[in-house]
């Protein structure tokens, strides 16, 4: 190509800026391909939207573009976001670039992907992503000097006073001190928004410590770094359960987050429409404390309480039966016959542990087909999206800029390539009795993560043999009288 990606991006952004800053919807929409996408996070409405095609984009912006007051649009060339060429197809090359801007309420940022238009030298947007990056009036404060009161106050005194002020009148209460709740609290801390995190467990990180002992994160560290505080350079590629638990505890301490452990919000908080505050009672380790925050953030996790299905014969089973959330290692099951219900990540990890620790037999019982992807295939995808050496927030931003319909279409297009890579794995699983799928539309495991948070697992298991059954009610009836199986683990 005769022009650099920066030149192409700058020219397109200049025209887009002129249209957007003047509130000209028609001209703004004309900067998109006819089938282009606008993905917007809070800039043009108080919700997240993905629009495809001129008609839908125009309707969305018709009453929101001018009020947003887009100004000061600039190309963003920070490391990791420099304008670059990218392959659209084997024959078409596009240009991708980032930008920053101001709106009436937010400091914003965006990302766009351009493709050649119909006319020579013309470029149109395949995707444009806009998002709120900071709330005006609550800018992040950044690092402190560490010297307080002209070097007359100790950090212990400063921290104790800050905590007391936050605990007396928090603006926000966050329910849950997992990775999400802690990072939200860290961000609010930088924005000087007084925040308390309420956590039911005795220690930060217990939500991971209480899981099965061989648990390791299935995605590499570049995908799961924490805000402001990435893992050390020598951190393992895949983070073990206890290291993650301890890291979360250290994170809460180093980010000066106020966490109330052994605490719960009592039902039911009430909102005062006149005061614009919540009336909340917190049980803090047996002491009831009344608070009046402006906001409550629920960060209690994606999964609810353990659920054990009501299966005919379950309570008559002669062996021990329990949910996988109670599985604390396979050592007690050496020499015993065990059934594991389910074929997700937890079930697969438990089966591996049982095999390694010498269970006599292991039977995996599965209700329906499962999407299985090898760690090699999944990590190749993640390594491309979250490369080592690039800050996670940069990779997150670029990944979030891709509209979901394009993600799905790309994964469907890559289906045969994925299946070819995992052919030996899939052949072995089918031979063992496991029915496999690639999702309802062939898009594979990633879509299932976001849409169902289940019906898949990432294979990190060493080679071995285990029996699989497709249904389990008949199996229970057969086992409950003869006691052939001594233990029965559930993962639903």
From TrEMBL:
First and last residue of the signal peptide: none
SUPFAM superfamilies: FAD/NAD(P)-binding domain
Top-rank taxon, per record: Eukaryota
Gene3D superfamilies recorded: FAD/NAD(P)-binding domain
Coiled-coil ranges from the UniProt annotation: none
InterPro entries: Auxin_biosynth/cation_transpt (IPR050982), FAD/NAD-bd_sf (IPR036188), Flavin_mOase-like (IPR020946)
Keywords for the protein's UniProt record, in alphabetical order: FAD, Flavoprotein, Oxidoreductase
GO MF term (any one): N,N-dimethylaniline monooxygenase activity
Name this protein carries in UniProt: FAD/NAD(P)-binding domain-containing protein
Pfam families in alphabetical order: FMO-like (PF00743)
């Amino acid at each position: 190509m005769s022009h650099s990606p920066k030149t192409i991006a700058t020219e397109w952004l200049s025209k887009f800026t002129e249209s957007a800053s003047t509130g000209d919807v028609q001209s703004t929409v004309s900067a998109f391909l006819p089938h282009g996408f606008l993905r917007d996070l809070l800039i043009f409405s108080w919700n997240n939207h993905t629009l495809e095609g001129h008609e839908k984009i125009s309707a969305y912006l018709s009453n929101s573009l001018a009020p947003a007051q887009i100004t000061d649009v600039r190309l963003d060339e920070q490391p990791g976001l420099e304008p670059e060429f990218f392959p659209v197809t084997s024959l078409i090359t596009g240009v991708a670039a980032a930008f920053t801007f101001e709106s009436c309420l937010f400091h914003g940022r965006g990302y766009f992907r351009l493709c050649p238009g119909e006319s020579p030298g013309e470029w149109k947007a395949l995707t444009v992503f806009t998002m709120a990056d900071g709330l005006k009036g609550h800018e992040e404060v950044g690092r402190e000097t560490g010297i307080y009161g002209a070097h007359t106050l100790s950090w212990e005194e400063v921290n104790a006073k800050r905590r007391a002020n936050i605990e007396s009148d928090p603006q926000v209460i966050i329910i849950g001190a997992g990775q999400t709740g802690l990072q939200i609290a860290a961000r609010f801390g930088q924005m000087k928004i007084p925040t308390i995190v309420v956590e039911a467990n005795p220690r930060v990180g217990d939500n991971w410590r209480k899981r099965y002992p061989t648990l390791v994160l299935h995605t590499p560290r570049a995908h799961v770094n924490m805000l402001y505080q990435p893992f050390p350079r020598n951190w393992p590629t895949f983070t073990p359960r206890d290291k993650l638990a301890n890291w979360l505890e250290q994170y809460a301490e180093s980010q000066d987050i106020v966490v109330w452990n052994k605490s719960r919000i009592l039902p039911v908080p009430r909102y005062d429409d006149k005061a614009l505050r919540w009336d909340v009672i917190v049980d803090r380790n047996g002491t009831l404390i009344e608070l009046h925050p402006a906001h409550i953030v629920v960060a209690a996790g994606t999964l609810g309480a353990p659920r054990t299905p009501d299966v005919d014969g379950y309570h008559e089973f002669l062996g021990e039966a329990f949910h996988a959330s109670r599985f604390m290692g396979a050592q007690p099951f050496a020499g015993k016959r065990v059934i594991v219900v389910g074929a997700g990540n937890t079930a697969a990890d438990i089966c591996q542990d049982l095999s390694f620790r010498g269970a006599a037999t292991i039977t995996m019982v599965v209700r329906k087909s499962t999407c299985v992807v090898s760690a090699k295939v999944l990590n190749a995808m993640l390594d491309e999206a979250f490369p080592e050496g690039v800050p996670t927030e940069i990779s997150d931003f670029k990944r979030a800029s891709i509209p979901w319909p394009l993600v799905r279409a790309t994964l469907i297009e890559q289906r045969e390539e994925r299946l070819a890579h995992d052919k030996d794995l899939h052949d072995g699983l089918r031979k063992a009795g496991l029915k496999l799928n690639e999702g309802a539309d062939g898009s594979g495991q990633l879509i299932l993560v976001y849409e169902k948070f289940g019906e898949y697992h990432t294979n990190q298991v060493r080679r071995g043999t285990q029996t699989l059954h497709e249904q389990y009610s008949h199996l229970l009836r057969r086992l409950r009288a003869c006691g052939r199986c001594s233990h029965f683990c559930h993962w639903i």
